[in-house]
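Supplementary Methods, section 5.1.

A reviewer requested that the exact input to the structure prediction be made available. We therefore reproduce it here, unchanged from the version used in the analyses.
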Amino acid sequence: MIWNVKVENCWHKEKLSAFFQKTSKSKKNNIPAKTQRREDSVLKHLFLCDLAASGSYLYFCCMKFILASIILCFSMYLYAQEFPTFPNGLIYSDSLINIMKHDFDSLNIQFDKNHFNIDGTIEPVPSGREKYYSHIQAHGAYVEFESKESDFSQLRKDLDAQKSYDEITAKYVNYIGQTDAMLLIVKTTSLDTNQKEIEVLNSVGGRSESYYELAVNNHVAGWEFKSKNKWVYEFSHKDFSEWYFINAYYLYEDFNRVTIPQKYYSEMNYARVLLGEEGYDHANKNDTLGYQPITGSCSHDLYPRRHAVEEASKAGLANRPHTFLLAHLDVMNDYMDRKSDFTYEKSKRYTYLKELEAVNIRVEDLLIGLTIVDDSLPEFYSASPPRVGFAYSVEEHSDFENKIIAGMKDKSLDEFNRLRFLFIWESYIYYLKDQIPAKQKIQKLNESEDGLTPIMKRYLREFKLQKG
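The structure derived from this sequence is encoded token-by-token as follows.
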């Protein structure tokens, strides 16, 4: 069998030498010699180590392919500037900017004409509904149970019997892994692997880096409005693992949905006018989009973002403002699928806010309108709060900062959207280049906690410790 054929030492040397020569020839015209030598050294070292360990032809071929992919990502990381700029300092040409100015001026006029009465009151929302409603949400706790010895048959019976939080956590304390007793739990819908609609519970406002998602099955319609003091859990056991897991939410109250205050309707309506139907198509992954996003191979793969900018440019020159804005917002929010993505790379992907300002978009209104999310179906495009904060962190924006803090402290707004404002503020403060005012802002907000929820207060206290 070919899989068992041993590779002789002389074959090693001959084939490796030919491979490295071929690689060097193919790259020497594009990559500086110093970096080429570095790549060759890394490649040779990894190849020789792994090849010596395996000694099989098949393994050699697989490693050759894998390492070629690694070198490709490494090369893109070293040399590529994200986007070239035009003499105007923007990533779009003057001709495109002028076309989009005209189109967005028209949309601004359309918005002002159709969504306000003479007395300044706001017309109903574009979808024809008279009100926007929040996502369904409730306060609760998360508990993860894990064990090698027990299949949790008794624990599952106790959870099904809806025994109290204190009783369960005391009885099974030795099996508890992660836990958080102060969470906001938001109920949404999603599609499973069979494209069947399912209910999903997501935690918001947990401790740093904590995020829990739970699929809900076999529940009677309307169960969420009778959920006080109830457990919702998911049992799992992987065939390749000795471990058994139960991920569970305990709900302190019934789920609830509230009306979003009308004072935010202007920004929400403005976002819907500027994005049009494509804002719904993108959020629901419809194939009718003006452009189709693509998937990247790794953190350093620039092609998905470059593709979005290219599509935005094509749409702009073709007088398609909705598609232009959608593609550019994908770049700003970094809504790109990647097979792998490391957190430390995200701050290197800029937001290009001034391009939106250059085409006469009311940027603050747009981004606030995309920050506040409602429960409408189909869903509408929403902004990434950390990316919005990052976009404004180049310099201090006092007016914008005050609006964000006002949203955080607005007791008439649901807590999920208030937390989204908090995440904008956190990112804005974190990335401010001048850290002296940043620390002062953290201290000031911690000293004036009026209007903040317990979850928000805890989040800010932990953020203060992280920032020193």
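Strands lie at 136-147, 176-191, 197-204, 213-216, 230-237, 244-251. These observations are discussed further in the main text.
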